């Protein structure tokens, strides 16, 4: 048996007492004072010293040989006062011995409760009995921000899929069992519960070789490794592998495969024991830990107020839908245009350059839907304020008018932090700050002064989302600015929330504003980018050699440029003080991936204080979530009829209600192209289907081969954007001839299947289904697919098998379920794939070709590819019918105006093939005027005698049958569907 050990550093209920003016603030000032004379030679601006971002040196508990194992010293609890009912149980847990106070102060009395919320949903809570004691109030997550799961009044213990048992011997523990399999899905037997004011720990066992997914945000493979510490703490850091990242998603999916004997008895099987000749069933369940604190999940090769909700499935689809419908909310419905192609980079210098990029897309006839701006457009990196030399409002108005009339869109970045002007410089006034300051909506220090950190503009303040006026402030800024720049969506960045210094480093230093960040920007002296993707040294030998030489000399110069900055040499260890929380330096140190592991490094410090007294410590992981909500409400104020389009960096459980997400600052490396797939699939589980990564890579330079493969891969991701860092070589798809061709060929498919993509999004928005799917989810009875993340599905019908390695001309892929009669058709040849069940098949994939397959049994609604989604949306329809092994096929289409919130006019068409007959039935009031042009049927084994559309003969000139490929193509249908493809129900017979 394996063990999952959950170390929740910082319980969710914690005293919100105002601490002393923190050490981190004092440190920020001190390090500032010693470096304020340091002005960088090449910039007239003051540079915030890099030491300002150094925290105290800490050893994370998971790697600290001296760290005490709470399991070995803590007494655990005993349950008493047990009250059972048909819907659950309540009990009191009392400390079973002397408090251990190992990483905080033990809570002596807890309320334990079990509630059967629905027959497929169960909640377990453990909360301190005394929510208010004389010297502390406890912090409870706001249900408006993080909703609790809903309950169904029919639920009962008797009818639940799950059963929960508990025992006091040797100390309190509990076990959740799935009735159908008699298998424990969560079991704390053999461990003690530890519940302190800054530390909660419980241990559950897992089967050997478990299949766990989720627990974000991390860059990792889809199925979690058996030997991993997963830290959850929102961090502004460029995509390290396995470490904590921008968002916090405390949810996991656990899938188990069983062999069922003739008596119906289930035997759990280990993945490596799976046998292709046998039949299996799988049961999946999900667990949501409703906790926003920094936390760690330690997965060993052998396993919060606690608020756990179990979703019994039994399929991934059931779990994911249940999790969204009952708890976190359904994903936002996206506008149709957002599925078009997005181009971005850091370093588009002015409107003229932006216009040139757009013109280049037109010239090379590459579809472009949306042009994006990074922070270049801002006046001194201030939100809601354009640089009047490079991005003047007047020129912007002309640019946007032209852009919009071509059917295209514009989305700029907005950062979480707000510049605070230099009080000694009257010309530095900044209205956004003045308005927010007047309404008092910014985060505070414990002493009540404004908390002043540092981000791109220099010293900055941060909106306090607990302040009831902050949402209005933010919305008003968006509305005001929108009148000057007619944006079509917002890209929210730096919302972890990031700050480039420890503590309130700007307090007392505002006369230095505006200031340069405490590090050099890409392209600045000492930070010239010489990185290229693997394989560049083969394709571009000479350039690679000179880049490598230049990189070495840059590194050598840095080494002689003085001692590398370092924090103090000794480690800081915190011993708990009875009843007092140390929020800046909690006694249990999580493995936060910032340098030196300090929670205040590169983030707003945990002791920053909200208007209701709550410390950032308790809600750090929610900042990103709340700014996304505020931005959503702001865009509704701009236009209440339009669906807001938002892409955000830091997210929490439920952020999908408002925003999509991109993978953050990845690098132009092959590994990151691969990791984009598991990252997308994980966000499918988190209810954020609108996901994509910086195509061709952000950090470092990209190259022709990587960009060629990546532009093709991302064409099948919901959010399709190419983005690049400052000073890196350009990587727009028109830069290299082969990339232009590869991009156009993949986009031809994407733009043709936009109606399919959109239908999937509508379904996700209404039911909680996913858009990008793992093979294991669509084929749940095959244990060999449990870890597959090198290929994926878009909805149920399209499978993509991308090349993920340099210098390859083929790729290996599996074709699931062949032994059950599944048929797969090659997108390009339209013929059925000849492959063996369970065998990794070699698929030819020369550069510029991405293998795509259509699953038999599907009907795909398509329109013609075009340069914009608007243009594509105005073209005639076609249907691609891929017959399944049994000759049947099904499909769906959802249509509406593609942008409004009110969905009173929509059309839902269902397609059904039975025998040699395709039936299209439409419901709804949206009038679709585009006619139907062609229906292509794959897998037709015999030439049809005649083809009829609603009983009328289709002229022979419109019918083509290829006996070799078994493709039937029926054209000329627009004459029969002049009123629109779906204006009446119809049947096509062949
Ligand atoms: C588990 O991971 C740790 C840290 O990365 C490593 O030192 C150790 O060798 C790994 N153990 C196994 C069994 O893989
Ligand atoms: C815009 O930026 C480009 C590229 O940096 C530069 O060459 C050009 O002079 C700028 N044009 C204007 C009008 O500022």
TrEMBL record:
Residues 112-256 form the Glycoside hydrolase family 31 N-terminal domain. Pfam families: Gal_mutarotas_2, Glyco_hydro_31_2nd, Glyco_hydro_31_3rd. Residues 1-19 form the signal peptide. It comes from the Eukaryota. InterPro entries: Gal_mutarotase_sf_dom (IPR011013), GH (IPR017853), Glyco_hydro_31_AS (IPR030458), Glyco_hydro_31_C (IPR048395), Glyco_hydro_31_CS (IPR030459), Glyco_hydro_31_N_dom (IPR025887), Glyco_hydro_31_TIM (IPR000322), Glyco_hydro_b (IPR013780). It catalyses: Hydrolysis of terminal, non-reducing (1->4)-linked alpha-D-glucose residues with release of alpha-D-glucose. Residues 331-760 form the Glycoside hydrolase family 31 TIM barrel domain. Residues 768-860 form the Glycosyl hydrolase family 31 C-terminal domain. PROSITE patterns: GLYCOSYL_HYDROL_F31_1, GLYCOSYL_HYDROL_F31_2. Its EC number is 3.2.1.20. GO terms for biological process: carbohydrate metabolic process. GO terms for molecular function: alpha-1,4-glucosidase activity; carbohydrate binding. Keywords: Glycoprotein, Glycosidase, Hydrolase, Signal. Belongs to the glycosyl hydrolase 31 family. This is alpha-glucosidase. It comes from Penicillium fimorum. The lineage of its organism: Eukaryota, Fungi, Dikarya, Ascomycota, Pezizomycotina.
């Amino acid at each position: 048996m394996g063990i999952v050990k959950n170390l929740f550093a910082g319980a969710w209920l914690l005293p919100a007492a105002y601490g002393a003016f923190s050490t981190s603030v004092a440190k920020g000032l001190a390090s500032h004072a010693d470096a304020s004379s340091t002005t960088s030679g090449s910039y007239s601006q003051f540079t915030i010293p890099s030491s300002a971002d150094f925290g105290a040196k800490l050893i994370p508990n998971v790697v600290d040989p001296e760290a005490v194992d709470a399991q070995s010293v803590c007494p655990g609890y005993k349950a008493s006062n047990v009250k059972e009912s048909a819907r659950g149980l309540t009990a009191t847990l009392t400390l079973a011995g002397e408090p251990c106070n190992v990483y905080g102060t033990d809570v002596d009395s807890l309320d334990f409760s079990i509630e059967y919320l629905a027959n497929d949903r169960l909640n377990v809570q453990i909360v301190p009995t005394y929510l208010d004691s004389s010297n502390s109030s406890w912090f409870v997550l706001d249900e408006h921000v993080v909703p609790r799961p809903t309950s169904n009044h029919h639920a009962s213990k008797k009818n639940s899929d799950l059963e929960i048992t508990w025992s006091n011997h040797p100390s309190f523990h509990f076990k959740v069992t799935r009735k159908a399999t008699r298998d424990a899905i969560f079991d704390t037997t053999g461990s003690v519960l530890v519940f302190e004011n800054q530390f909660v720990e419980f241990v559950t066992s897992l089967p050997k070789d478990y299949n766990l997914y989720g627990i974000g945000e991390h860059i990792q493979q889809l199925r979690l490794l058996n030997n991993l510490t997963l830290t959850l703490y929102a961090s502004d850091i460029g995509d390290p592998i396995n470490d904590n990242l921008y968002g916090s998603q405390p949810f996991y999916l656990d899938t188990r495969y069983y062999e069922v004997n003739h008596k119906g008895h289930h035997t759990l099987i280990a993945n490596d024991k799976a046998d292709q000749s046998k039949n299996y069933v799988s049961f999946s369940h999900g667990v949501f830990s409703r906790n926003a604190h920094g936390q760690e999940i330690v997965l060993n090769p052998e396993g919060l107020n606690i608020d756990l909700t179990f979703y019994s499935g039994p399929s991934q689809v059931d779990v994911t839908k249940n999790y969204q419908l009952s708890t976190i909310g359904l994903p936002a419905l996206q506008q149709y245009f957002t599925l078009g192609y997005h181009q971005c980079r850091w370093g588009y210098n002015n409107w003229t350059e932006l216009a040139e990029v757009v013109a280049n897309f037109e010239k090379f006839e590459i579809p472009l839907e949306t042009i994006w701006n990074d922070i270049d457009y801002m006046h001194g990196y201030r939100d809601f304020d354009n640089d009047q030399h490079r991005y003047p409002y007047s020129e912007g108005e002309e640019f946007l008018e032209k852009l919009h009339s071509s059917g295209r869109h514009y989305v700029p970045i907005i950062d979480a932090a707000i510049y605070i002007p230099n009080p000694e410089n009257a010309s530095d006034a900044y209205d956004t700050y003045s308005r927010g300051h007047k309404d008092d909506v910014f985060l505070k220090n414990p002493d009540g002064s404004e908390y002043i950190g540092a981000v791109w503009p220099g010293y900055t303040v941060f909106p306090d989302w607990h302040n009831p006026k902050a949402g209005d402030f933010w919305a008003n800024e968006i509305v005001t600015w929108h009148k000057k720049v007619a944006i079509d969506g917002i890209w929210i960045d730096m919302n972890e929330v990031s700050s480039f210094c420890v503590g309130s480093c700007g307090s007392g230093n505002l006369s230095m504003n505006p200031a340069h960040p405490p590090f050099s920007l890409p392209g600045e002296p000492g930070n010239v980018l010489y990185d290229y993707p693997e394989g560049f040294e083969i394709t571009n030998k000479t350039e690679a050699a000179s880049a490598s030489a230049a990189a070495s000399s840059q590194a050598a110069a840095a080494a002689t440029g003085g001692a590398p900055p370092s924090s103090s040499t000794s480690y800081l260890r915190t011993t708990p003080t009875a009843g007092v929380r140390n929020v800046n330096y909690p006694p249990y140190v999580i493995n936060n991936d910032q340098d030196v592991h300090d929670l205040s490094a590169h983030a707003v410090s945990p002791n920053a204080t909200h208007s209701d007294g709550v410390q950032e410590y308790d809600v750090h992981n929610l900042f990103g979530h709340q700014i996304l909500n505020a931005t959503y409400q702001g865009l509704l104020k701009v236009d209440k009829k339009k669906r807001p389009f938002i892409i955000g960096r830091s997210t929490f459980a439920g952020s999908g209600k408002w925003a999509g997400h991109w993978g953050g600052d990845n690098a132009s490396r092959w590994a990151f192209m691969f990791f984009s797939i598991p990252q997308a699939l994980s966000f499918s589980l988190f209810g954020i289907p609108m996901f994509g990564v910086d195509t061709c890579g952000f950090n470092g330079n990209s190259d022709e081969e990587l960009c060629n493969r990546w532009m093709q891969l991302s064409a099948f991701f919901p959010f399709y954007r190419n983005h690049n860092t400052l000073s890196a070589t350009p990587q727009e798809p028109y830069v290299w001839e082969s990339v232009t061709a590869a991009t156009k060929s993949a986009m031809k498919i994407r733009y043709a299947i936009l109606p399919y993509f959109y239908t999937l999004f509508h379904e996700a928005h209404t039911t909680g289904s996913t858009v990008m799917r793992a093979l294991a989810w669509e084929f749940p009875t095959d244990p060999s697919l449990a870890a597959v993340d090198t290929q994926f599905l878009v909805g149920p019908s399209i499978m993509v098998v991308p090349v993920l390695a340099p210098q390859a001309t083929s790729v290996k892929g599996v074709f699931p379920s062949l032994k059950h009669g599944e048929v797969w058709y090659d997108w390009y040849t339209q013929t059925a794939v000849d492959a063996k069940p369970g065998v990794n098949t070699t698929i030819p994939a020369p550069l510029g070709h991405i293998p795509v397959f259509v699953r038999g049994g599907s009907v795909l609604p398509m329109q013609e590819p075009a340069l914009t989604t608007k243009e594509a949306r105005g073209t005639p329809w076609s249907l691609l019918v891929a017959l399944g092994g049994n000759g049947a096929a099904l499909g769906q289409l959802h249509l509406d105006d593609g942008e409004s919130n009110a969905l009173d006019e929509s059309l839902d068409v269902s397609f059904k093939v039975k025998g040699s007959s395709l039936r299209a039935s439409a419901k709804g009031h949206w009038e679709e005027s585009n006619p139907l042009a062609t229906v292509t049927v794959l897998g037709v084994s015999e030439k049809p005698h005649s083809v009829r559309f609603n009983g009328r003969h289709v002229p022979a000139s419109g019918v083509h049958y290829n006996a070799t490929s078994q493709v039937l193509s029926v054209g000329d249908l627009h004459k029969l569907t002049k009123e629109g493809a779906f204006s009446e129900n119809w049947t096509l017979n062949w």
